[in-house]
Amino acid sequence: MPDKTWTLVGADGRPFASHRPGTLGGHRRNRLYGRLDCRSALQALARGGYQAQRVFFLDEATALAAGYRPCAVCLPERYRMWKAGELGVQVKPDRE
């Protein structure tokens, strides 16, 4: 039986196959990431249409390096820090 693989997004923003599952989910078009149990993401998934934009990351450092921002709903403190420029990445107004 082949080993299970997951498709994750790397620091360069490109997908790759991983033998480890992602710890964070994200939305490709909106360029945001959050917890896998985020109530906002789960509601969007339940409504449909979100699955095509769904991406996964190994960790927060990878998500940030790929140009994604923290979710304001499930990661409010990380979002506040990102907004204040305290996460070492630039705030891009077109991605707020």
Explain what the structure shows.
The chain is of the alpha+beta class. The protein has one domain (6-95): DNA Methylphosphotriester Repair Domain. Helices cover 24% and strands 23% of the residues. The chain contains 3 helices and 6 strands; from the N terminus they run E-E-E-E-H-E-H-E-H. The protein has helices at residues 39-47, 60-65, 76-83, and strands spanning 6-9, 15-18, 24-27, 32-35, 54-57, 69-70. The chain has a 4-stranded mixed beta sheet. The longest helix has 9 residues, at 39-47. The N and C termini lie far apart (44 Å). 23% of the residues are buried.
Present the secondary structure layout.
Blueprint: E1 6-9, E2 15-18, E3 24-27, E4 32-35, H1 39-47, E5 54-57, H2 60-65, E6 69-70, H3 76-83
Parallel strand pairs: 4-6
Antiparallel strand pairs: 1-2, 3-4, 3-5
Strand residue percentage? 15-25%
How many structural domains can be distinguished in the coordinates? 1
Give start-end ranges of low-pLDDT stretches.
none
Question: Rough shape?
Answer: globular
| Order of the strands making up the biggest sheet | 5-3-4-6
Q: CATH fold name, please? A: DNA Methylphosphotriester Repair Domain
Quaternary structure of the protein? single chain
Instruction: Report the CATH C-level class.
Output: Alpha Beta
State the helix count. 3
Please identify, by name, the CATH architecture: 3-Layer(aba) Sandwich
Relative helix content: 10-25%
- Sheet with the most strands, sense and barrel status: 4 strands, mixed
State the order of secondary-structure elements, H for helix, E for strand: EEEEHEHEH
Q: Which structural class fits the helix and strand makeup?
A: alpha+beta
Rg from Cα = 13 Å
| Count of beta strands | 6
Distance between the termini: 44 Å
Q: What is the overall pLDDT average? A: 91
